[in-house]
Amino acid sequence: MHRFVVGYLLLSFGSLISLVHSWTDSRDVNALNVMFKSLKAPSQLSGWRVSGGDPCSDSWQGVKCSGSRVTEISLSNYGLNGELGYQLSNLTSLTSLDVSKNNLNDQIPYQLPPNAVRINLSHNQFTGNVPYSISQMSNIESINLSNNKLDGTLSDMFAKVKKLKSFDLSNNELTDKLPNSFANLTNLNTLRLQNNQLTGTLNVLADLPIEDLNVENNKFSGWIPNELKGIRSLKTGGNSWSTGKAPPPPPGVRHRHPNAKDQDNKDDGEKSKLVRNVAIVAGSCLGAMLVFAALMAVFARRKAAHPSSQFLDEERNTGTKDNTPFQSRELAGAQYVSNVKESKGLKTIQSGVTLDQASLQISGPMGLNRSVSGRGSSVSEQTSRLKGRSSTSAPVIAYSLEDLQNATSDFASRNLQGEGNIGRVYRAKCEDGKVLAVKKIDPILIQGEKPEGFAEIVANISKLHHPNIAELVGYCSEQGNYLLVYDHYRNGSLHEFLHVSDDFSKPLTWNTRVSIALGAARAVEYLHDVCSPPIVHKNIKSSNILLDLELTPHLSDYGMAHFHQRTSQNLGMGYNAPECARPSAYTLKSDVYSFGVVMLELLTGRMPLDNKRPKAEQCLVKWASPRLQDNGALAAMVDPALRGLYPPKSLSPFADIIAHCVKSDPKLRPAMSEVVQSLIQLVQQSNMNLGDDLSTSRRTEDSDYAVYV
Length: 709
Fold this sequence. Notes:
It is a single chain. By secondary structure, the protein is α/β, with parallel strands linked by helices. Among the domains are: 126-243, Ribonuclease Inhibitor (Leucine-rich repeat, LRR (right-handed beta-alpha superhelix)); 397-487, Phosphorylase Kinase, domain 1, CATH 3.30.200; 494-696, Orthogonal Bundle (Transferase(Phosphotransferase), domain 1), CATH 1.10.510. 32% of the residues lie in helices and 14% in strands. The protein has 15 helices and 25 strands. It has helices at 2-22, 26-38, 260-303, 309-343, 377-380, 401-407, 451-462, 494-499, 510-530, 561-564, 588-604, 620-624, 631-637, 648-661, 672-685; strands spanning 63-66, 69-74, 81-82, 96-98, 103-104, 118-120, 127-128, 142-144, 149-153, 166-168, 173-176, 190-192, 197-200, 212-214, 219-222, 233-235, 240-241, 397-398, 416-419, 423-429, 435-441, 472-478, 481-487, 545-547, 553-555. The strands form five sheets. Strands 1-2-4-6-8-10-12-14-16 form a nine-stranded mixed beta sheet, with no helix packed on it. It is globular, with a radius of gyration of 32 Å.
C-alpha cells in the first residue's frame, strides 16, 4: 500500500512538472493573440484565440514549439486576410515563419522575429518598404518577400546579415540602386531581383559567392561584372546593359575570369610548379638547418647553468611594458564600451528594439530595438507582459508609513514634486540612497475606503509590466493613509521639457519627439489591447509621460479609475475629448484623443490651453486642426525650438496621425494599435534612426525633476 501511494504521488508530481513545462511563454501567447486578432480571427486556424490560451500544449494550427517557446509558424496557403500584428518581435525563439500564398496586406510589420532563420512572406499583398529590422537578424539564412507590392528603395542595412544564403525580392516594385552593404553578404548563394524597377550596376555583387542570380526586367545599366559570367545560373535580360568592351578594373582589384573553372585549373597548374620549386629549395636548406640546430643545442647546454641576466630583463620588460598593458587597455576599453551601451540603453534591434532596435532598432521606446523603436527593449525588449506572468518582475514592496515619512521628511513641502487630480507626489530618499516617488492619495477620495479595497487596486496595478509604463514598486496603507510608490525619473516629465525652460534643458530633437510619441503610444496600446479587460487611462497628458535619463517615455497615473470616478474635477484641461464631460464618460477612444493632443504638443511646442496667446490660438486643438492638412500652414506650426531641423517628409505623416486622433467623432478616431503602426511606418519611410541623437536632448544627470500627477 505504501509503495502504491508513493508511486501515485510520483506519477502525479511528474504530471504536474509536465503540465508546468507545457505552459507557453506569455510573450509568445500575447504575440499570437495579437496576430490572430490582426488576421481577423479566421476559423481555419483551429485552436487559435484572441486572448490567452496555450499554443504549445493545445497544438494550435501551424504552430510548433520547443518546451514553452514557439519555434515555428507554418501557415502557407491558408486563405488568410488582414495583417500579421505588431508583436512578432516577442517571438524570440521563433526560427521559421511561413505565411506565404495568402492575402495578407498593409506593410510588413517593422519588427520581425529577431532570431529567425527562415522568413517566407511571398505571394501576398504586402506594401511599403522592406523592414529595416532585418538589419539586426544575424541568424537569418533565407528571406522570401517575392510577389508582393513592396516599393521604395532598399535601405543600406545588410552589413550584419552575413549568414543570409537565399534572398528573393522578385516581382515587387522596388526602385533605385542596390545598397553597398550587399557586399557583406559573403554567404549569399541565391539572389532573385527580377521584375522590379531597380537601377544602377551590379558591381556590388561581383565578389559574392552567388551561383543563382536573376535580375531580369529591371532598369540596371553598365556592364555585367566578369565575376558573374561564369556562375551556374545567370539571367539578365530586360535591362539597359552597356555595349562594347567593359573598362578595366581599378588598380589593385582582382577580377574572376569569365570561365572561372578553366582559369582556376590554369592557376592550379602554375601553383603546382611553384610548389615543386619551393620544395627543392626547402630541401636544400633543411640539411643546413639541422646541422645549425645541433650546434646550437650544444651551445645551449653549456650556457644553461649561467643564463643571461640581460635576456631575462628584456623579456620581463617586454611582458610588462608591451604585452600586459596592451591587453589590459583592450579589455578595459571593451568593458567601457559595454558599460556605456548598457547605461545608455543602446541595444540593437534584435529585441528589441532595442532598439531595440530598437530598434529604430532604435534605442529607447522601439524595442526596436531601437533602429526604429522602440526600445531598447529590446532595446530593452519591447515586450508586453500580461498580468505579471513574467518571473523577472520585481515584487511590490509593502513600505511602512514611518519609513516613507522619514524618506520624505514627513512629506515636507520642499519634497513636493507635483499635484494632480487624485493626490500629491513627493520625492523620497531612502537610507540606501535610492530615490523614489511617493504618491499620496487625497484623503477626500479615500473616505470610507477599506484596506482590502486598496490592496486589490495595488494588486491589479502591480500586474502591469511594460517598458514604457512607470511600474509600481511599492505601497503603504497605514493609519488611514494610502500611498503608491514608484521609481523616480530624474529627467522629469514631457511637459517640463516642452513648456518649462531652464538652464538644464536642450530642446528635444525631432527624432527624440517621434521616439517619445512611439514609446508612449505603445504604453497606451498595452493598456488597451493587451490587458484584459482593457484599461482606460482617462488622464493622458504630457505631465504624465515621464522621461528617464535616456529620454525613454514612461506613462504614469494608469489604473486610477477607482479614484477618478470619485473626483468631480476635469481630469485634463485641454486634453479631454469633446464627449468627456465627466470621468465616467471616458472610453478607449477618448484616450486616443488625449494622446493626439500630446502629439500636438510635440509638434508645436505649445500647451493645450494657453491664455497668454490670442483668443483664437488659446485652445491648441481648435487652432491646429484646420492647419494639419495644409502643408504650407503645417510648416509654420512646427515648434520654433527645432530651428527647422527635421526631415520634411516625416512632418506630414506625423500631422496626419494627429488629425485622425483628435477627430471630434470618437468613431472616426483610430485604435491605438493603428496609431503605433502609423508611427512605425513614419519611421520606416523616413529612414529615421531614433537612437543616434538622444544625447543631444537631455537634462543634466544631476537634475532631480520628476512629476507624477
